[in-house]
Amino acid sequence: MKSRDFNDKPTSNGKLYYTVILLIIIAFFFGIFAEKVTSLMESIDVVNRDRSVAEFQQTVSAIRSKWLQKRRTNVTLDIVEGSQLIKKGSVSFRVNARGHVIGLQNGSNFDCQQLWSSVQSQPWSASLHADTILIKEEVVGCRYKVTEQDYLVYDSKNGQVYLLPIH
Prior knowledge:
Keywords: Membrane, Transmembrane, Transmembrane helix. It comes from Pseudoalteromonas ulvae. This is MSHA biogenesis protein MshF. This protein is α+β, with helices and mostly antiparallel strands. The chain has helices spanning about 10-70, 110-120, and strands at about 75-80, 85-95, 100-105, 130-135, 140-145, 150-155, 160-165. The chain is elongated, with a radius of gyration of 28 Å. It has one domain. Helix content is about 40%, strand content about 30%. It contains two helices and seven strands; from the N terminus they run αβββαββββ. The longest helix has about 60 residues, at about 10-70. The model has no long low-confidence stretch (mean pLDDT about 80). The strands form two sheets. Strands 4-5-6-7 form a four-stranded antiparallel β-sheet, covered by helices on one side.
């Protein structure tokens, strides 16, 4: 039996074998990497969603707190920016008799998209959709959806913000 010298070049069958093994290893690591990236992206979505809901709730609470001071139908909040809290402008909201937001002062109708944009530091996203909630033809709040799944509900009767589970 003839022994093979390490300096011998591999045959074409050997090259094919090593290439297939290398491709399998690369595919395996790519699969692990893709799973980790997908998991990370889902975590980022959850954090952004929670932050968005918290920001919505905080702004609605701030509007009501300001209303409690003077009990007027219009409440103005300052828009601040940065860690030095530099005043960038202000937004005026219309509130109901209980001090809950029912729209913007300059808006004639209850516009859920405009409300979202005014109480969030985040711009309106193409994946978001807003529906006005009506009971007996009276506007009672907004239902926000992300990619056609319910996401958040704002009830203007009691000022509550409800986070809905996304499946």
